[in-house]
Amino acid sequence: MFTIQNDLTFAKQLSIFLSRSFRNYSVGKVIMSSAAVDSKPSDAPEHCPGTESENAGKSSACAGCPNQQICATGPKGPDPAIALVKEKLQEVRNKILVLSGKGGVGKSTVTALLSRALAHQNPEKNFGVLDIDICGPSQPRVLGVLGEQVHQSGSGWSPVYIEDNLSLMSIGFLLGSPDDAIIWRGPKKNGMIRQFLTEVDWGQLDFLVLDTPPGTSDEHLSATTYLKESGGAWGAVLVTTPQEMALLDVRKEITFCKKMGIPVVGVVENMSVFVCPKCTTESDIFPAKTGGAESMCKEMEVTYLGKLPLDPRLAQCCDEGKDFISEHSKSPTVLALKQIVAKVQEFYES
To answer: At what angle do helices 81-88 and 186-199 cross, to 10 degrees?
Structure first.
């Protein structure tokens, strides 16, 4: 059992984990991943040989470069963990990255709704959720398994089961308290994600849904590097709200996906309207003055998956860890969710 309530402190356990995970890993890998096109850091000199070159950090062009020491001492060539991830996920048919450019748009809620809906509609198939929002893991609470513990066997960590065909892995299970803070720089977060992808015993899955933090940073680069080479189908579902403030950032997320070669499944407009649960009257909470997500999708040439109305009962279910789909099956949000899920499945079946 891997929790901080054991004899070892959390710090000691993480030290053991890091000693294994970083044996072949360094900050140089982060730089290499962030420049996936030509392996050159953005602040590198004109004649940079690239971080994968044997001359990295050693050629005359490297003199004065702020990355010289990292490149000279870092490992060369592809990350050896890529092959390990591919082997471990060989029985995972499809992967979905749930992304958002801005925090607070309901990305984690959409992740939970999407995974629960898939599990409900396909009881004969298996589904998993991987929470890689290292500093803000919310899936244990949203999916109703807060306080559960992760067990370790000969085949790796066993994820926590929400339903018979839906499981979850999150760093939230490794904390002694929901109030504990993870104060890590990029390399440690990347190492944790690699640990999840190589040492969790997912078994045979039809879909693995990854809940990510907002933005386009370390966690996204790490997940993209590993999933791109893992085999099977993969793609990204982007979440936004209707107002231009959120749309500005989701445009950046779409650009990130295109640059990194991530197939875009489509965009979900969350909290599109408020629907009163008693009288079903609709009200615009976030007015879409520029046409909302649908207009943006046409402009950016990506698929518009649909809109999810804001239902106050959904927030209550997330706080209490209840299954909103079962509790309120006639909610306009649930009806809209079914159409979105159908489009997502169609993308992976095509």
So the answer is: 40
